[in-house]
Design a protein that fits this description.
It contains ten helices and 20 strands. The chain has 449 residues and is an alpha+beta fold. It has an eight-stranded antiparallel sheet, sandwiched between helices. An eight-stranded antiparallel beta barrel has the order 13-14-15-16-17-18-19-20. It has a two-stranded antiparallel sheet with strand order 3-6.
């Protein structure tokens, strides 16, 4: 990056480390599929932390578990609407769904009963399940967002049951090895930062414990490095390396709940936190464990992302720093638009379908996209717009917007020529209220006047 950009990025990290009195802070910016900038302030064992220094990443662990669950969904091993009882029978909250657990809308208690799990050695699944035999639900399932660490302990067990191994073994085989994230581990492997609490009224430190969380580990056990977090930031932005389909990551970034419906600035998707800051839509996740704070964020539109780690229990505004780093990069070196290129090949029959179609009197434009995808949008630019991916002969499935998941079907005349589209009962014809026999309720036989 330009020297001026790098200076501004380092200045932001340096100010945060000094003002928050953090023992050390690392940060990076991801762009164009690579770590474009790395910066660090403070010391770990008397030396500046490097791209290979491990920090505990806390609840960013949840995003890894969510990817494991979505892989199972994409394979057909589970449905997001499945009740927990289908895969982990016998719990006192078996009616909650997989999707509700992912999005923190199941209503489960936020923390596991007993000692504070983040500072106490964890127990096994059987002990966790028994501790939740009574009063596990704090809210009606689906009624509201209620962040639950317990829910991700449960999802870890779902992964283990369906894979026939521990969630950590599944993580290693399905995500870490394929993405070459060799320094993301359940326990620290040197070089690793020690977690500290900073005294509020004096510049002195207290070491924090880092016990194994047992069955609660899927909620926040993992350690990682700047290099590995850079790769994970790319995945959040959609560069999945084949671990997950980019469409599935896009689905995870869609908010299932928003915290402030009037403003819609923060919310939660399927395992990912989502937010809108200054007109920018970001997705990722924060993490905190005693002695550590972390954040991963990515702009889904530009692909620019940032991550921050610190070995301090509190005080470091990792989310604000990550957002600021993205904004600095976009202000100093805005992303270039992707070069336009013609389609490498196309189906003439699909090309013939493009152009004007009408829902009643409202004109829409149908455009041909790569890989036989279609885009349907109002000519005015206002209203319902969606992309559609092929689902079979003359069939497409909505990917986003109002028509996400709905079927777009092309109907033909007896001689095989295109007649009209049926999109979730909405009929699109070449002319306004054309093809009268296809229009629900019919068309006045006297026509326009």
């Amino acid at each position: 990056m330009l020297q001026t950009t790098e200076a501004a990025l380092l200045r932001r990290v340096a100010a945060e480390q000094a003002d928050s009195r953090a023992p050390s802070v690392t940060a990076g910016v991801v762009r164009d599929g690579a770590l474009a900038w790395f910066g660090a302030r403070g010391k770990v064992d008397g030396q500046a932390p490097t791209r290979d220094t491990q920090y505990r990443i806390g609840s960013i662990t949840k995003t890894f578990v969510a990817v494991l669950v979505m892989r199972l969904r994409d394979e057909g091993r589970l449905d997001l609407n499945d009740p927990l009882d289908k895969h982990v029978p016998g719990t006192s909250f078996g009616a909650v769904t997989i999707a509700q657990l992912l999005a923190h809308t199941a209503g489960l208690t936020s923390e596991s009963p007993g000692a504070w799990w983040e500072r106490a050695p964890g127990s096994d699944w059987q002990s966790l399940e028994q501790s939740l035999a009574e009063n596990a639900l704090r809210h009606r399932s689906g009624a509201r967002f209620h962040y639950t660490n317990v829910g991700y302990g449960v999802l870890g067990e779902v992964v283990a049951r369906l894979r026939g191994c521990t969630w950590l073994e599944a993580l290693e085989a399905e995500i870490l090895r394929p993405l070459e994230m060799t320094r993301t581990t359940p326990h620290p492997v040197a070089p690793a930062a020690l977690g500290w609490a900073v005294h509020p009224f004096a510049d002195v430190l207290l070491p924090e414990p880092t016990p194994d969380s047992g069955a609660m580990a899927p909620a926040g056990q993992l350690w990682s490095t700047p290099d590995d977090l850079a790769r994970w930031t790319r995945l959040v932005a959609g560069d999945t390396g084949g671990v997950l389909h980019p469409d599935t990551v896009a689905e995870m970034r869609e908010p299932a709940h928003v915290d402030d419906a009037d403003e819609w600035t923060t919310g939660y998707g399927l395992g990912l936190q989502v937010m809108r800051v200054g007109g920018r839509r970001l997705a990722g996740h924060g993490g905190s464990m005693p002695g550590f704070l972390a954040m991963v964020l990515a702009d889904e539109r530009t692909g620019t992302g940032a991550f921050v780690t610190a070995n301090s229990t509190s005080g470091v505004a990792v989310g604000t720093v990550a957002t600021d780093l993205i904004n600095i990069v976009e202000a100093h070196e805005p992303a270039l638009p992707r070069e336009w290129e013609p389609l490498p090949d196309h189906d003439p029959a699909l090309l013939a379908l493009t152009g004007l179609w009408h829902w009643g009197p409202t004109p829409y434009l149908l455009k041909l996209l790569p890989d036989r995808w279609l885009n349907l949008a109002p000519v005015s630019g206002r209203g319902r717009q969606s992309r559609f991916r092929p689902a079979g002969p003359d069939l497409w499935t909505g990917l986003d917007g109002y028509y996400a998941g709905e079927t777009l079907e092309l109907h033909r005349t007896p001689d095989g020529s295109p007649s009209h589209f049926d999109l979730a009962t909405f009929i699109f014809t070449r002319e306004p209220y054309g093809t009268p026999e296809a229009i629900p309720g019919g068309v006045d036989e006297k026509g326009w006047r």
